[in-house]
């Protein structure tokens, strides 16, 4: 590709490599556009393999000038998100991790689990590396600090407290069992605990325990004693790795020619609370480029930003990234290339985790590759099924039918390729026809995804297989994509002891199904694929079903349209909560008059008298 790099100015901006079709291959930013672009056309030996391939495939090079390098950083991030270029580093796991939220502006706040941090004045703690970790933390907090667990932003008054109060897991604020002052004191204790100030918290609890004992309030003293013991037991399990008691993210990187692994350690108040790994397969890049891209993408959308981000080497955009993160957080953030000290020990630990996870991934890939080669021989597919998709339908008597497609890549779930469809053409139970609609839409709407598949698996028996086989024949897809189905059916001819369910694999053109009992690893992989598609289909069905039930209940109320319905749900959370609110509470919502509030109570069966609590 011959490009005139002299036309590029010595200014900050963003540049885009494009191919002959105008597809964006790569987006980059630069403090000096001309210097950066010239670096791509050095002698072959001085550039990376990825750069040489990129330049060879590009036919056009465009640029956009920005006022500052920070503007270039933000524009680059936006363009990468929009175009998802093949030669940029893209994080496949882009979900937000759960965190805990406490809104101190609420007179009776509760602990909420959220996945998006906002600058709304509330306190956020986390993130936690998994849903399991946040559930365990919440379970511990509910045991030590029995704040209200009922849903809804505001406390809904009740005549009698809920079951959690009877179990000692709630102080019964809804029934007036605790004053706002005492409740806020416990909220302050929760905040101290989550901030890691456990020494201050223990001292306060010890003082209150002694005061209660002196006042002969022995039940109260025992309450504080139990909380002290719980905190002490929890602290014994924690491993303090830093005496600075700061919030840090430690990014370790391990790289080989066939891939890169990133490991992020979450250090909160000097304690490692978890880690997250990212497997970056291709395209490859230099460590500086990968670290820069990771920081840009990882912290871009509402994730928790710590005091420090420790990295193994300096990066060019270090200053501008730090400025950008500080603005997002509203407080100074330091990106720290570490060379020595206890920070270096943390970084060594992160890099060790990255290396071990990389080795583990490659071993698993080699094992799965051998298993998939065996599957090709057993099922006689034209190529090794590295990428397999499974289709499943979920419905009850044809209602709210949902079709789900899950994809396994080298034997592992590729959740970015999952798809779900609301079945539109059928209202009565007809799984083969519903599956045909879903598969046809998949072929029509996702040509790139279907082109990447090596095997299509159906959750069903001969009926589903024959229907999809005819469809693929009509669409001319049979030669492109092999097809099988897996069904759990009862085997009645194996004697009384042998009766049960057996997995049968149906293959087009074969009269009898394959029984893979002699190939348990292959069967287990197909079962995992089928079970995952079943789980994904059911979860989507339940979501639609719950939404429609909720919508229909509110839509039945005269005078409640979409805007008022949304306001009611935002305020009270659910129909169940609406059934327990007073008419006066309803009238506080903008647009809810006395007449509409009366209708809401009438339709939802609210038995509370007006103004009751």
TrEMBL record:
Lineage top rank: taxon: Bacteria
InterPro entries xrefs: GIY-YIG_endonuc, GIY-YIG_endonuc_sf, GIY-YIG_UvrC_Cho, Hlx-hairpin-Hlx_DNA-bd_motif, RuvA_2-like, UVR_dom, UVR_dom_sf, UvrABC_protein_C
Gene Ontology biological-process entries: nucleotide-excision repair; SOS response
GO molecular-function term, one example from the UniProt record: excinuclease ABC activity
Keywords, in A-Z order: Cytoplasm, DNA damage, DNA excision, DNA repair, Excision nuclease, SOS response
Coiled-coil annotated residue ranges, if any: none
GO cellular component: a single term: cytoplasm
Domain UvrC family homology region profile per the UniProt entry, residue ranges: 250-472
SMART domains: GIYc, HhH1
Record CDD domains: GIY-YIG_UvrC_Cho
GIY-YIG domain sequence ranges: 10-89
Keyword RNA-binding: no
Cellular localization per UniProt: Cytoplasm
Subunit structure as annotated in this protein's UniProt entry: Interacts with UvrB in an incision complex.
Name of the protein: UvrABC system protein C
Taxonomy of the source species: Bacteria, Pseudomonadati, Thermodesulfobacteriota, Syntrophobacteria, Syntrophobacterales
Gene assigned in the entry: uvrC
């Amino acid at each position: 590709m011959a490009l005139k790099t002299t036309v590029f100015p010595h200014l900050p901006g963003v540049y885009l490599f494009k191919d002959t079709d105008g597809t964006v291959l790569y987006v980059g930013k630069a403090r000096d556009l001309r210097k950066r672009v010239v670096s791509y056309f050095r002698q072959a030996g001085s550039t990376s393999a990825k750069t040489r391939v990129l330049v060879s495939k590009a036919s056009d090079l465009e640029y956009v000038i920005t006022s500052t390098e920070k503007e270039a950083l933000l524009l680059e991030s936006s363009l990468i998100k929009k175009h998802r270029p093949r030669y940029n580093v893209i994080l496949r796991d882009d979900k937000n991790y759960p965190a805990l939220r406490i809104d101190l502006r609420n007179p009776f706040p509760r602990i909420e689990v959220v996945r998006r941090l906002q600058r709304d004045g509330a306190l956020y703690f986390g993130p936690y590396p998994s849903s399991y970790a946040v559930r365990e933390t919440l379970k511990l907090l509910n045991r030590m600090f029995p704040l209200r667990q009922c849903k809804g932003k505001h406390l809904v008054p009740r005549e009698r407290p809920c079951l959690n109060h009877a179990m000692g897991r709630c102080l019964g604020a809804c029934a007036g069992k605790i004053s706002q002052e005492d409740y806020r004191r416990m909220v302050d204790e929760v905040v101290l605990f989550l901030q890691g100030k456990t020494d201050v918290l223990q001292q306060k609890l010890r003082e209150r325990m002694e005061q209660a004992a002196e006042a002969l309030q022995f039940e109260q003293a025992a309450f504080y004693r139990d909380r002290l013991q719980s905190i002490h037991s929890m602290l014994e399990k924690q491993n303090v790795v830093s005496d600075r008691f700061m919030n840090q993210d430690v990014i370790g990187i391990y790289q080989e020619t066939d891939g890169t692994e990133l490991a992020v350690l979450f250090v909160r108040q000097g304690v490692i609370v978890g880690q997250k790994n990212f497997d970056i397969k291709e395209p490859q890049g230099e460590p500086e480029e990968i670290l820069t891209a990771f920081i840009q993408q990882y912290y871009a959308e509402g994730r928790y930003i710590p005091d420090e981000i420790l990295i193994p080497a300096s990066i060019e955009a270090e200053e501008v990234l730090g400025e950008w993160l500080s603005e997002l957080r509203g407080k100074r953030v330091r990106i720290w290339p570490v060379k020595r000290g206890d920070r270096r020990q943390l970084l060594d630990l992160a890099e060790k985790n990255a290396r071990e996870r990389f080795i583990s991934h490659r071993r698993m890939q080699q094992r799965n590759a051998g298993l998939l080669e065996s599957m090709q021989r057993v099922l006689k597919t034209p190529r090794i099924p590295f990428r397999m998709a499974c289709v499943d339908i979920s419905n009850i008597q044809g209602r709210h039918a949902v079709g789900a497609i899950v994809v396994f890549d080298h034997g592992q779930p590729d959740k970015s390729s999952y798809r779900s469809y609301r079945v539109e053409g059928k209202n009565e139970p007809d799984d083969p026809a519903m599956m045909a609609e879903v598969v046809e839409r998949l072929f029509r709407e996702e040509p790139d995804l279907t082109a990447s598949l090596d095997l299509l698996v159906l959750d069903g028996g001969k009926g589903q297989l024959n229907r999809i086989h005819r469809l693929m024949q009509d669409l001319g897809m049979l030669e492109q994509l092999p097809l099988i189905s897996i069904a759990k059916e009862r085997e009645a001819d194996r004697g009384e002891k042998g009766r049960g369910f057996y997995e049968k694999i149906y293959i087009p053109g074969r009269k009898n199904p394959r029984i893979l009992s002699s190939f348990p690893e292959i069967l287990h992989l197909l079962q995992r694929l089928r079970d995952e598609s079943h789980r994904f289909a059911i979860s989507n069905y339940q979501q639609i079903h719950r939404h429609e039930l909720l919508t229909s209940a509110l839509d039945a109320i005269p005078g409640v349209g979409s805007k008022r319905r949304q306001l009611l749900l935002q305020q009270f959370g659910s129909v169940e909560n609406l059934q327990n609110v007073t008419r006066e509470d309803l009238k506080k919502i903008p647009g809810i008059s006395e007449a509409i509030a009366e209708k809401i109570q009438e339709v939802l069966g609210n038995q509370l008298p007006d103004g009751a609590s």
